């Protein structure tokens, strides 16, 4: 930029900051100079003044015209100081005047204290360090400050002067002139300038710029050099050997003094006699090094190490040390890691050095006639020796083979297992239809076979995995003695049998539940004893109308308890209580009841019995439960006075009152720490001239109470000319009054509100004078309540509600909802109803049913019933009779946990007849045992965890995490090899947070995807942490397109399989890492992943499409979408990512319940129970003439579904002929989406189940929206249509439905609303369809 540009810049600065108006003198005589501005940025400066300082500096820099800037000319720098000095602009940063001015303009203001001494020392050590400063350029500093230093400055100022730095100081306002004189260069008058304020810095511009220019034009000031001190030359010393190994060691020493140019190390191997052999080695080391690694040594050999100091013209002193290398490392941690009946699995820790291999053998002397030896590769760390004998000891030896030779042998003794029976087999906690079996695990067993036989000879059994030591046998008959046996399984060999017997109970339910002795804060609960019960669980909480009055509570009681006193319950609150029978950890049926605590009572018959000029006598009736009474009074605006009286005191005289004054007197009952409602009356004290008092009305009482009226009675008062009756609502409202004749002794108060308390006063009248009022309180009756409200005739999907007819009602309002869902469904019924059947309920769920009587527009009090949909008897299993030669039937049970909310709606119905439900009786093949295959019998549950924000260690770990994690890694061409390495490092760091890897902890798999997905390694490929980390280091990069949808589908079908290591009882996590937008559809596979219970975490990098990631990872209670702006920014999300991955929210999202969690409380409903659906569940296995089925379809992910829904990845085969399940998942009529196939099914068509949902905000407009078809289960409604033996119909599903088809039912969710009545519309459309037939049961 030329001179004209400089002046334009100066002009602009002048216009924008009018406070700096003067011009600096132009400087054109400087050749080379280093000029630094040292600026005070302490709190006393402030943002405005700091901006003025920047303008001031800019003008001085601009005054240097027509000269070279940068390395060969003038350089400028800016250093600020507050708490610590900071070099904002270094002398070497910029090479042009324009760049420096731009940097000055952008300087930020921070604030802080003022440490001037540190700033001056920083100039010497950093700003003008030998690396930055120039020998022939003057060094100039201009310091600008407005206060006294917070530290010492003298030593630092001397260091500045000694280093040849010219220091100018501009002192503003509160600067200490004496301190500044000690700092500035001499002469002080030339280098110290004062300014009254930052706003007038322009006044010193000409003088300062002229002096800086003059100093910069002169030669640099000399630097004072300290005289060197001669030091005695000392050679290397303190030789030490560390990191000693068989082929290397590290030598460390103390540095030699003097002008050392290097070191020479001589290495002599010694013979066994200690003399020096001929060969030796020499290693030269640099002078600035004090350690060296010596390698290529021989194992177990003595060496003499001599180190010399080398100078420019001679070899200096030396130091010598003798050391012996270690032998070749033995195999470490050699152990037996698993014993089998006929095998031993051995393990050891691999060596870090180079290995040719291992030799493992059993010496011949150990087992005559048996010899074993095997040569293994060097990367092996485990080995199985099989074909051994059971219950025998073996000595096994191993040694490592190195290039230098073999290591010493290591031996251990292992013993094969003995075929033993199950120990500590305990069968207990019997109910009417279940028993619990527990046993001690048998070492080495691969599983267990549990068998139970009924008195009539019917046998069932189940094969359990090796991790089972508990199982609940269900579906038993009451009052029956069962023989229960168990035997361990060792691969293909079965162990001995352990047997026991147990009888189920005749009844396991509480028959009577009573609530008595109810007060304001207590109630006594009692019930009948249940034989065989180990305990009871009592739960209680306010009903919906009283939510917030108290919190839900529950407690466990021992089996001998049949009565419990509830304390500290809220007053005037309706509670629902549920009592459950406990049989060990199993929860039996429950029974519910409601009760309401008494309200806090108000004082009745509160009246003035007499009064004088200075006193008033009060009396009242006692209140049950009161601990004392609080009496208070005041007159006019005077402050109230109070007095507490014992509960036995029912009269009190208030004294020291003023004559002819109106006093307001209040009283309330005190219940412990709570005060009851307060009532009040007013009384005029007598005047000094009053000769006669008006008598109070006597024997006032309420003789009749109705829903809307009271009747009062009293005795006549002598001399009264009438009586005044007034009444007002107790909780506030308008006061009404009426005067009756002196002959009246009764009065009816009409038109009152039902169930409301009123304050009533009656006083005698003598002319216009009114006597002392008598105050009493009364409460109108409640509207009649529905009585005997109960749920009867419950099936597995419906219940019939019954109640006693209420006189004079205009109808009933009936409502119901699932216990964990807020939306309620209601029906308004006519007055002729006394029962109503509710269908389409979910099996195993608890519902809240309520009913209110209607009196025109007025709703009466509520009655509530909590009821669990289980049916009166265990749900029947529909099976067909099998021929006597048919093989055992194999059933696999699955348990789902789906909550369906009901959309609130109200319709009016009139009484109709409810047809009886036809029971279905199961048929059992005589004499044929039934075998149940199960991997886990533990139902699902929800965990609620409270997280507290805490400050933990810098590096979180996941020591308790147990999950199957698959990393789906984008390797498309947009990433590149370098970025792929950074992505690989991120995965590696995440893996290091898991201390336990393998079947007992976290398992990790990695899949790459581009055009085609490929597996790097599976979940069960590696059994320990080191192997997984080593595999992650070896990940390879491919390249291609971004087919994310295909990658997700591939992981779901190919990686999450039990045969590949997936475990059903741990969390399944898919971690997607990508940098761009997918080139295929990601919505269908993502929806399937969520339906299969896979937790998805999405990590987007660089150009990742965040909208697409939101489709892949649906919203959850925890954060599951992360974004890294670049591949270098992975560390910024690492900690948050690992905290989420190891959080209880994620790991417990789909975790299985333990047996003790099967509870059903009023506030949290248990998991939906398994409802048998036909002869074969969602996974059936083929069996012919006793052969074991092929099990196709077993072992993969399972749908989180309602009973009757089926896994889209499963196709199975039945007992007779080919039986395929009908499976479909997707949106009808979408052209671009690949749906799972619909497979034909054989059997008899039983019926349809239809679920629909109103989705007005999601009306489909184009194909892309239609493909998403969300399942809004939380808003779904349902209808079930049974054909009842009719001829099977063809089926067609309307366009726009999201469909799940299975062998028992069809579930459809309408994705666009139809206001014509969904039940009739869907039934009509489905039954006239034309697509496929859906059947249940087998056909020839």
Mean pLDDT: 75
Oligomeric assembly? single chain
Please give the largest β-sheet: 8 strands, antiparallel
* Distance between the first and last residues' Cα: 98 Å
List segments where confidence is low: pLDDT < 50 over at least 5 consecutive residues.
1-21, 873-956, 1152-1194, 1200-1246, 1248-1340
Query: How much of the sequence is in beta strands?
Result: 25-35%
Number of strands: 74
| Content-based structural category | mainly beta
Number of distinct helices: 17
Provide the helix percentage. Answer: 10-25%
Q: In one word, what is the shape? A: flat
**What Rg do the Cα atoms give?**
46 Å
Descriptive notes:
The structure is a single chain. The protein is mainly β and about 1350 residues long. It contains 17 helices and 74 strands. The strands form 17 sheets. Strands 37, 38, 41, 47, 48, 50, 51 and 52 form an 8-stranded antiparallel β-sheet that branches. Strands 24, 25, 27, 28, 29, 61 and 63 form a 7-stranded mixed β-sheet that branches. Strands 3-2-1-4-5-6 form a 6-stranded mixed β-sheet, with helices on both faces. β58 (about 845-855) and β59 form a beta hairpin. α4 (about 115-125) runs parallel beside α5.
Task: Summarize the topology.
Blueprint: H1 3-16, E1 33-40, H2 46-62, E2 74-81, E3 85-89, H3 97-105, H4 116-127, E4 139-145, H5 154-162, E5 165-172, H6 177-183, H7 188-191, E6 192-195, H8 205-217, E7 237-242, E8 249-254, E9 260-269, E10 281-286, E11 291-294, E12 302-311, E13 315-324, E14 332-339, E15 344-349, E16 357-362, E17 372-376, E18 382-385, E19 393-402, E20 405-406, E21 410-415, E22 426-428, E23 435-438, E24 447-453, E25 459-465, E26 470-473, E27 481-490, E28 493-494, E29 498-503, E30 513-516, E31 523-527, E32 535-542, E33 553-558, E34 563-566, E35 574-583, E36 586-596, E37 606-611, E38 616-619, E39 628-635, E40 641-646, E41 651-654, E42 662-671, E43 674-675, E44 679-684, E45 698-705, E46 710-715, E47 722-729, E48 736-740, E49 746-749, E50 757-766, E51 769-770, E52 774-779, E53 790-792, E54 799-802, E55 811-818, E56 825-829, E57 835-838, E58 846-855, E59 858-859, E60 863-868, E61 889-891, E62 906-909, E63 930-933, E64 963-970, H9 976-991, E65 1003-1009, E66 1014-1017, H10 1025-1033, H11 1044-1055, E67 1067-1074, H12 1083-1091, E68 1094-1101, ...
Parallel strand pairs: 1-2, 1-4, 4-5, 5-6, 25-63, 56-62, 61-63, 64-65, 64-67, 67-68, 68-69
Antiparallel strand pairs: 2-3, 7-8, 8-11, 9-10, 9-12, 12-13, 14-15, 15-18, 16-17, 16-19, 19-20, 19-21, 22-23, 23-26, 24-25, 24-27, 27-28, 27-29, 30-31, 31-34, 32-33, 32-35, 35-36, 37-38, 37-52, 38-41, 39-40, 39-42, 42-43, 42-44, 45-46, 46-49, 47-48, 47-50, 50-51, 50-52, 53-54, 54-57, 55-56, 55-58, ...
